[in-house]
Amino acid sequence: MTERAASSALLTDRYELTMLDAALLAGTHDRECVFEAFTRRLPAGRRYGVLAGTGRLLELIEQFRFQDAELQFLRDNRVVRDETIDWLADYRFSGTIRGYREGELFFPGSPFFIVDAPFAEGVILETLLLSVFNYDSAVASAAARMVAAAGGRPLAEMGSRRANERSAVAAARAAFIAGFSATSNLEAGRTWGVPTMGTAAHAFTLLHDSEEDAFRAQVNALGPGTTLLVDTFDVEKAIETAVKVAGPELGAVRLDSGDLPKLVKQVREQLDSLGAAKTRITVTNDLDEFTIAALAASPVDSYGVGTSVVTGSGHPASGMVYKLVAHRSGDGGEWISVAKKSDGKASIGGRKHPIRRLDARGTAVAEVVHIVEKGDTPDDSGRDLLVPLITDGEVHREHLGVEGTRRARDHRALAMAELPDEAFRLGRGDPVLPTIFG
Amino acid sequence: MTERAASSALLTDRYELTMLDAALLAGTHDRECVFEAFTRRLPAGRRYGVLAGTGRLLELIEQFRFQDAELQFLRDNRVVRDETIDWLADYRFSGTIRGYREGELFFPGSPFFIVDAPFAEGVILETLLLSVFNYDSAVASAAARMVAAAGGRPLAEMGSRRANERSAVAAARAAFIAGFSATSNLEAGRTWGVPTMGTAAHAFTLLHDSEEDAFRAQVNALGPGTTLLVDTFDVEKAIETAVKVAGPELGAVRLDSGDLPKLVKQVREQLDSLGAAKTRITVTNDLDEFTIAALAASPVDSYGVGTSVVTGSGHPASGMVYKLVAHRSGDGGEWISVAKKSDGKASIGGRKHPIRRLDARGTAVAEVVHIVEKGDTPDDSGRDLLVPLITDGEVHREHLGVEGTRRARDHRALAMAELPDEAFRLGRGDPVLPTIFG
């Protein structure tokens, strides 16, 4: 049993089903439609976003079936009419979805998930897909900035305790896609193949009669290559004890408190003076992209990041939305572009096809969003951002599971390498690529 | 199949299991211990916090079993030694937990969840329990401020799409405990008995050939008492159409954009002039406790809140920690209080018992945390905050499920009623009760 649950069908806002109910009665439920997911804007000051969640979502769409228990709940609570219950009992997504590869970078207005389906089939996926993309991408977008700030030093995600217990698994996966090396979360190891890490907390030291007893117990079980936590009482004494117990082959020491730039320097000097020149230093004290950057000149070997990465470093939800942009007319004839005009929330109607425009050196210069007819591919020499995700109801398996997660991580690295240098400055700025509707 | 999954055992940081591994080898794993969960501080400016998560957590602790699949993962990945695998195969929490009732208010330093168990049994629950409390309480704490700001008008939680798909269910439950009336999330309805609501989105209007067709389709399916969304194109025209289609018995109109104080006033006047004086107005445009408060003088009938409630309104994780505070000595003799001294993160050792002190009128004046011996109850006439949650491994069932959720909601109302008035001002301030170690 992995963390995947049996049915995802009620992870849904009630209004998706009442809309279905009304459309069924009106006979408009099977109008062919195009829905697009995109973000209206990046969080203030952010230069790019990292899309994560696709692999998880495609699995959840496969599990999006209304079984007896779900149907009974809807019947008991009179959420929809009996006719609609019958329709839901047979529901299985039969449409086609194209979108960005997972790990792709996203910019305002550019659709990363394009659903071609009858209204009824497309509309009821809205809540679930936004839940997945909004959270996973918030984590991946923050994590990518931390990876850039760490300048090649490895980062571990350790924020499970600061996120809902299931979010924690998704967060570990999203951070890995964004370039983190490992996670503390065991379920993320099992379900998504993310490497796991971790050795001991302060409680372990406090349990024992002395810090030396605790270190000895840990080294006996985990070997001298383990990481000893050295800030329970007095860091200097702890390091002396640590090297005494584990020898100079001690793997690493972990610092979870204090004035890190100063402390790290002292610890490095002390370790070197004790002959433990290869013992690494890992720091884990409430880090974010800014404190990581501030440690660039310090002899830190790796970082552990908790709260800030699992909560999107100030932006815990990406602003992604899912909009109906076109449908066929009632007689099944021509396509009609649609868009709401709501104050401050107007959108652009019509089927779209996004392309990343690159210059001669392969550096990205713009996000170009073409308005297209069904079946047409824009005449544009840039990198085509759309790949098939689901075709006529069949999920493309390469996006799923451990393999899909690893492919997303690799793709993120490729897409990041296309960005101009200014994308990686932590200072606030506009999206590093303009979105052009072509 | 509800949203509860089969095993929660890998929703855990790896270091919980490596500590267990080392303690087993050292023979220190069965030392009797006391662990306490508390928050070091409230988010800046907040006056109180609302504890949520207990009922969910107790179920997850019951499901915290290492079955073949979990053990195989640990073996394959050499997370712990074979002896430890055997110990985990038999694991079932056998200790005793006392704590706050769910829905209780919390203040810095006061323990709300006190675990009496052998080290091994208590330590491996850490990650899971912090995940649950940190997220659920972040939502409940934000939600309670919104409830106060709404001054008796009902609030619906509609943020599922802005939270991880499973967080969304927990968020709906936490907001309900904090006083929200309903949620859009169907799984929260099924699993936790939270009333669900919702009618239609802009896509439904855009699907149809005219707004009038859309309104008619909705009224045909859901009746004239439904809520019509009136801001897809032009609000004034939409309201005219809405009343024409549904008649003056139209249940409500929903506004999801625009300058709400001004717009709500116009809409009320228009509805009244059309004879729809009983038609309610619900607003849902990116609300938080501050924008809700700003609508106090407007003729709004109810609020729908999304992003801000499910992300804790700027504070998506409560700062809760779980600390070893005492253990018996190696020979099973006396109790030893323990606390780390880490820079900026020092804690207070010893078993604690929190009491809410009330004045003669029943208004809370202080959180008093007594340091006590095992089995002792403090001599204090205040309200005892501790109730049994698990006794010798047996969960007290009244905290679970739909009933537990409703009890938590009721208890939250009682606890809030004890607070002094200044607790409910939205301006920033210190915790409204001081924590006194007695």
Detailed description of the structure:
The structure is a homodimer of 438-residue chains. Chain A has 438 residues and is α/β, with parallel strands linked by helices. The first copy, chain A, has 2 domains: 14-124 and 319-437, nicotinate phosphoribosyltransferase (Alpha-Beta Barrel), CATH 3.20.140; 152-310, Aldolase class I (TIM Barrel). Chain A is built from 15 helices and 19 strands. Chain A has a 7-stranded antiparallel sheet. Chain A has a 6-stranded parallel sheet with strand order 7-6-11-10-9-8. In chain A, a hairpin with a 2-residue loop joins β17 (387-391) and β18. The longest helix of chain A is centred in the first third of the chain and has 25 residues, at 126-150. The two termini of chain A are 47 Å apart. Chains A and B meet through α1, α3, α6, α7 and α8 of A and α1, α3, α6, α7 and α8 of B. Chains A, B: It catalyses: 5-phospho-alpha-D-ribose 1-diphosphate + nicotinate + ATP + H2O = nicotinate beta-D-ribonucleotide + ADP + phosphate + diphosphate. Chains A, B: It comes from Leifsonia soli. Chains A, B: GO terms for molecular function: glycosyltransferase activity; nicotinate phosphoribosyltransferase activity.
Strand and helix layout:
The structure is a homodimer of 438-residue chains.
Chain A: H1 14-26, E1 32-39, E2 49-50, H2 54-62, H3 68-76, H4 82-89, E3 96-99, E4 105-106, E5 113-118, H5 119-123, H6 126-150, E6 155-157, H7 167-177, E7 182-183, H8 186-192, H9 202-207, H10 211-222, E8 227-229, H11 235-246, E9 252-255, H12 260-273, E10 280-283, H13 289-294, E11 302-305, H14 307-310, E12 320-328, E13 335-337, E14 352-358, E15 364-371, E16 383-384, E17 387-391, E18 394-395, H15 401-417, E19 435-437
Parallel strand pairs in A: 6-7, 6-11, 8-9, 9-10, 10-11, 15-19
Antiparallel strand pairs in A: 1-5, 1-12, 2-4, 3-5, 3-17, 12-13, 14-15, 14-16, 17-18
